Amino acid sequence: MSITWPDTGLCDAAELLRGTAEVTVLAHVQPDADALGSALALGSALRRRGAVVRVSFGAPDTVPESLRFLDTAGLCVPATAVAPTADLLITADCASAERLGVLAGLVPATIAAGGSVLVVDHHVSNTRFGTHHLIDEHAEATALVALRLLDELGVALDEPIARCLYAGIATDTGWFRRASPEVHLIAARLLGAGVDAVAVGRALSGARPFAWLSMLSSVLDRARLEPAAAGGLGLVHTAVRLSDMVGVRMEEVESVVDIVRATAEAEVAAVLKEMAPGRWSVSLRATSVTDVAEVARRLGGGGHRQAAGFTAVGSVEEVLDRLRTALAVP
Ligand code: AMP
Ligand code: MN
Ligand code: MN
Questions:
Q1: What number does the ligand 1 atom closest to the CA of 172 have?
Q2: Residue 311 CA: which ligand 1 atom is closest?
Q3: Which of 103, 151, 238, 323 has its CA 20 to 30 A from that of 46?
């Protein structure tokens, strides 16, 4: 990780946090551990300093079950309970205001009311939609950027805050497979604050309902390998239909891409997840040379070089055709 602060300085961002009595912290829709962990770590620290804090996200209505162990202070509120404007709005792990879903309107509303919007993120595609930006596109996780801010604020890392940060870093680095030596040292610091790595791993990916196995069985059986796709580097894909999702949580649906992406014959993996009949959220992963953030951008989405996504409407074949075309662009 290399920290550069081309936008708002760390000092100015910390000053903004110091001066605020009421703050709303938002993660992206369908929050992952990096988005919600970063939001809760920042929210907990501000609550400890005496601020009124609400943490939320546009969808779903409740905190995903596997992430509930992060909200020890009970900071999360449903999107409907978020005030329409805030003195300070912080977004975590959101590359654009659209990633806030139904809460996207809070950004212009807060700015129009004279409040500040601090964007804390690590996406190269960040559109810089706030009034203040703490963005490090080289950081492996937003949680690492959030930690820099907490250190600047002088916050002592207690176990609940360290747990939130550890969860974000662990998941965004693929359980430290894509982590630099510096990130391993930061993880050691978080473990030193009392984080139980086994418990975090179990909550996030090691405690799945039995129905997960039959869902995987159907979905993986339909996986197809297209060796000629992605400029001859190979594409592997499958779809998780609404009918496959009975008895499993979104967490299990999200787990599929991590299995599919391990296919050695394919540079690119795609998993189509049916969010509503004919409406798909597509996860893209790349092994080496392909920039799937660029591929996703061509299809209206975004993300990182090796992990990106987009949404699409149509049949599986129609969505795959659009993907094949986007992958074929040199
Ligand atoms: P996912 O496949 O959902 O785990 O997402 C992988 C990455 O792609 C995340 O870091 C997101 O930032 C990004 N991403 C996923 N879906 C979208 C989307 N519809 N629009 C923009 N970025 C997305
Ligand atoms: Mn995320
Ligand atoms: Mn992230």
A1: 10
A2: 19
A3: 103
